Amino acid sequence: MLLIAIVVLLLTVASLCHWRQRGRRAAVANLPGPYCFPLIGALHRVINLNPKNFLKRSHKYSIELGHLQRVWVLNRLMITSSDVEFNEQVLASQEHLVKHQVYKVLGQWLGNGLLLSDGKVWYQRRKIITPTFHFSILEQFVEVFDLQSNLCVQRLEQRANGETFDVYPFVCLAALDIIAETAMGTKVNAQLAESTPYANAVTECTALMAWRFMSFYLQSELLFTLTHPHLKLRQMQLIRTMHAFTTEVIKQRRQILEGMQRVGAEQPLQNEVGGKRRMALLDVLLQASVDGRPLRDEEIREEVDTFMFEGHDTTTSALSFCLWCISRNPQVQAKMLEEILHVLGSDRSRAVTMRDLGELKYVECVIKESLRIYPPVPLVGRKLQTDFKYTHSKFGAAVIPAGSEILMGIIGMHNDEKNFPDPHLFKPERHANSERSTSSFAYVPFSAGPRNCVGQKFAQLEMKMLLAKIVREYELLPLGEPVQAVVNIVLRSDTGFQMGMRRRSQP
Ligand code: HEM
């Protein structure tokens, strides 16, 4: 009896849901999609997705059903797209700016920071933050990039013995030092033995959240807490450590700023303790105002935390993949070295300037090509708050209903031969010759439109500096296993980033 009652109840719920969704089903009936069972939809397709199989499966589904698909999972409608024509309309839209709910995993750490916020809060913060990456401020950061890159080169010396090693940990700590010093004006000494508890917490928390990100059920804070209470406690501890650190840094810098304003210094923030004369991104936030009032410490903390997360994990991924690609392409490496020696010379004691970096045109193409094959942010997602009207050469003019989720595959577009001939070949020259697809939206490692990456220029300069210094000093050797890209919030490699290094003879 009980069993029959359960079956009847389930069938009733299923029919009710099906009936309630009929309008939404009709709206996307023009799009191909996998078979959907009653009630659960295509749950079978997502339930056992994990970082390792994600890319392979997405590729397989896209060959079977095309680049633009509708997928029902329970009562959720997801549109998955590596279709340039469709993605261009979503990315360029001024209306559909709300992030996909999967980003909520980062919520307790980053709060309402720029990456996660939406609506008025996002708009106001974006207006404040965009100028923080102004040319004149980036120019001051080049000195930090230069000094921290020297330290990274020095640390790599221990591995320059022609044996296989994983370059990831070296690059990760360098990126962390760079973002901490530029975002907060504070050294965390991640590359030195005496690294701070804060630096350790950032790396550990990033890894924990990356793991949760790719699991359908662990994305929910409630299910994560219920199934992994010890990890939940650890996550809370790490977040407390990070928030306490950033709050203290903000407090101290606010006091310095107020003190200097009291004594009427003309350019208060260019003269701070320790004899440094450099702005930090934080200083710009401390001087900003919203609706006529200064930002509260908590609001500033959310932005600083966002910089710390976005600014180290993505660049670490980008740099590691790029170094690996260089190690496997000796001709590219030789051409890079020629340019680096021509522009920077061989005097290691000369500080590299913004102007030098601007002249490294081939290095720029190498970075672009690596970001094409291995974009650190392989997917971006939106949650539609209102209906989204689009037109498509194959599917016509149609509407994706409000409440739907859109997942756009940057990696899919970048590795599609329609957009880039011989997509698996590492050819930096294609960026110099603009041997490109007709739409600029086919190549979007930093996303595009109103929610594109604010740190794009920062990241490019930082990468150029580190790559140029490493390649000038060491020959990168094609040793060890190949990379195996996995999706863990950002793109990483399951096999690490294996290579060898050998010190170059002095020219
Ligand atoms: C190679 C390095 C980087 C890559 C590939 C990258 C890529 C991206 C992408 C694709 C987005 C859009 C995400 C989305 O729509 O879901 C984004 C957003 C963002 N990035 Fe980056 N990023 C990089 C470095 C940085 C750095 C160094 C910073 C800061 C110092 C930064 C700060 C941000 C912020 C604050 C946002 C949110 C912007 C908004 O929503 O208005 N990124 N980034």
UniProtKB/TrEMBL annotation:
Cofactor: heme
A GO molecular function held by the record: oxidoreductase activity, acting on paired donors, with incorporation or reduction of molecular oxygen
Residues reported to bind heme: C453
Heme in keyword set: yes
Signal peptide limits: 1-17
Coiled-coil annotated spans: none
Keywords: Heme, Iron, Metal-binding, Monooxygenase, Oxidoreductase, Signal
Annotated PROSITE patterns: CYTOCHROME_P450
InterPro entries registered for this protein in UniProt: Cyt_P450 (IPR001128), Cyt_P450_CS (IPR017972), Cyt_P450_E_grp-I (IPR002401), Cyt_P450_sf (IPR036396), Cytochrome_P450_Monoox (IPR050196)
Residues annotated as transmembrane: none
The family this protein is said to belong to: Belongs to the cytochrome P450 family.
Name the UniProt record assigns to this protein: Cytochrome P450 4d8
Name of the encoding gene: LOC111593207
